[in-house]
């Protein structure tokens, strides 16, 4: 995966990334504006604000601004906070207006995060959101669209990288649907097979009839 590096000067480490870091997890953000990844990083490294992040991802490219072995100020949990001191921060661009550019940026971010998980030998539990550390509603648009949905995107990309059997994956319900799926099986509304297949109109009619017969 191609990553463009525009790293902050070491002369600014005291402002942007003062501490050595051995990353323990990934923290996902939305930029809350409509700049490209290159512009986000360029602005971050040019100012003297104690705000920083490791990567920005837009619909076309991934740009790195902080070395992975340095901390960044992104999680809002202070100088000793776990998010700021141990989190590898990833900003997803174009979240202010959303639309197709954000959708594609989120897809590329899911691929990138999956590649990082595989590289580091981590599982999906290592993917956190900004909100987990400071309570801020971020990544705002990703949260609006569904956090579990995004985690499922990352997991699917990770499975593909690991060569997980696609048939097996297709026959396991998504985590967000598992409880409802098990209920539907227990109630006899569904036969418990093909959880990720499309539902035909005639199959839907059978489910409706089974539901009506229970009344």
Key descriptive features of the protein:
single chain; 215 residues; alpha/beta; Lysozyme-like; 2 domains; 6-stranded mixed β-sheet; 10 helices; 43% helix
Give me the oligomer status: single chain
Corresponding CATH architecture of the largest domain = 3-Layer(aba) Sandwich
Mean of all residue-level pLDDT scores:
92
Strand order of the largest sheet: 1-4-3-5-2-6
Give the CATH superfamily of the largest domain: Peptidoglycan recognition protein-like
Number of helices in the DSSP assignment: 10
The coarse silhouette is: elongated
**Strand fraction:** 5-15%
Report the order of strands and helices. EHEHEEHEHEHHHHHH
Q: What is the CATH T-level topology of the largest domain? A: Lysozyme-like
By CATH reckoning, the class of the largest domain would read: Alpha Beta
Question: Total number of β-strand segments?
Answer: 6
Share of residues in helices: 40-55%
Category from helices, strands and their pairing: alpha/beta
Walkthrough of the structure:
- With 215 residues, the protein is of the alpha/beta class.
- The protein has 2 domains: 4-164, Lysozyme-like; 169-213, no CATH class.
- The protein is built from 10 helices and 6 strands.
- The protein has helices spanning 13-16, 37-46, 82-86, 100-120, 131-134, 140-145, 147-162, 166-170, 178-186, 201-213; strands spanning 4-5, 25-30, 55-57, 62-64, 87-92, 127-129.
- A 6-stranded mixed sheet has the order 1-4-3-5-2-6.
- The protein is elongated, with a radius of gyration of 21 Å.
């Amino acid at each position: 995966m191609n990553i463009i590096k525009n790293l902050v000067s070491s002369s600014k480490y005291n402002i942007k990334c003062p501490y050595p870091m051995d990353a323990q997890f990934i923290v996902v953000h939305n930029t809350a504006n409509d700049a490209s990844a290159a512009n986000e990083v360029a602005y971050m490294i040019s100012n003297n604000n104690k705000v920083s992040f490791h990567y920005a991802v837009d619909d076309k490219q991934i740009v790195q601004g902080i070395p992975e072995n340095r901390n960044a100020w992104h999680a809002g949990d202070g100088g000793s906070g776990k998010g700021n001191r141990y989190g590898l921060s990833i900003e997803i661009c174009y979240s202010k207006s959303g639309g197709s550019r954000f959708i594609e940026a989120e897809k590329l971010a899911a691929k990138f995060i999956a590649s990082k998980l595989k590289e580091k030998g981590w599982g999906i539990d290592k993917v956190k959101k900004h909100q987990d550390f400071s309570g801020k509603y971020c990544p705002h648009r990703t949260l609006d669209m569904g956090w579990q949905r995004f985690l499922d995107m990352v997991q699917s990309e990770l499975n593909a990288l690991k060569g997980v059997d696609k048939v097996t994956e297709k026959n396991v319900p998504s985590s967000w649907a598992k409880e409802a799926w098990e209920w539907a099986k227990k109630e006899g509304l569904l036969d418990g097979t093909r959880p990720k297949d499309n539902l035909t109109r005639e199959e839907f009619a059978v489910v409706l009839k089974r539901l009506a017969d229970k009344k």
